Queue: 3 jobs
Job 1
Amino acid sequence: MKCRECDRELEEGAFRIVDNVPVCLMCLCGDPPAFAVLPIGVVSAVDGPGGGLLEIWLHPGMTRFMRDLSEETGLTVIWIAHQPQTLHTTLVRGWDQKDAGLFATRSPARLNPICVTDVDLISVTDNILLVRGLDALPGTPVIDIKPSLASLKNSRPSSNPSS
């Protein structure tokens, strides 16, 4: 198979399907340096009727970073849309039905399928976070969590939110 834009032979993992045609990563991104993103946990379904609840099971090695986490009311969860999907340059947005470019949507089908969702933190038990409002599927890798900006504004005196 060849790249539809530059006619290079495609290597496994070095291309994406965009609007139903193969495009190599060189045409999409240039020649960026590689880097690693490590998962800190995984999304899990809640036993019984969930009511919009999901669990985030943090890897046991992450518990050292959880001090005071249970005091937060909201979190920003950064996760990877790990199920492969075809990229489209335009999509119909779910909230207003407008045809928009990919970067103007919240679609998980992205070149770098990094997704960000603000959630309500319901409880923390050991390394398990119970959250409401996470639009990820069970089995989804979580790559970071942090207090949401809304949680910071509601619970702290005015200060530097980046620390």
Note: Helices lie at 25-29, 149-155.
Job 2
Amino acid sequence: MEMDEEFLELNDLDWFASCQKKVVLHFATAGRGFVPEVIRRSIEDYEEIYDYFFSGAADSDVEIVESNLPSFISGVERDRYLKSFCDVARKGIYSYDFSHGNKYKLIAKPVTPLVFSKLSERIRNIISKAPFSPTIFIDIYDLQKIDVDNL
């Protein structure tokens, strides 16, 4: 089944892509962010990917990209916001949040990235379908911080 506009607006989706088939990237839409057509085509593939990554081991340390964080009223609010991004980054996945200006910003990054080639073949095939055009939806400065050449 395909995701329609109403589904996308009502759900804060978490979708995944690969960067040069070397590392995995996570995107939280906040119900407003860009979702590639290939992700929208199959709720079943989306759910399979979601379950795969959210059930995975969390053994990486995490770095928070402080300059990309919104303003918070309190430390509790900040911690609540960061929890899901840090949980994903602990799994070795670069975690982005939707921001103003129709872009995603890197919020949390793993110290030890999950290597794309270590994923199951089925998951690699699904993720690699997502066209990765970073200038459309990512602050390109954040992408430059990912050193895929040393993986």
Note: Residues 5-144 form one domain.
Job 3
Amino acid sequence: MKHLTEMVRQHKAGKTNGIYAVCSAHPLVLEAAIRYASANQTPLLIEATSNQVDQFGGYTG
């Protein structure tokens, strides 16, 4: 949570910033995203694909 709070603080101070999101279930893509976030000390947002989300609520796996 401190990463997001810091991003808001920087944004209010006029600094351009953001967070990237990965929307994949492929193990190599997820591994690359985790490695990148770890190496660059950045937060990682992994989104579910539309096929993984039940439109009536819940996660289909």
Note: Residues 27-40 form the longest helix (14 residues).
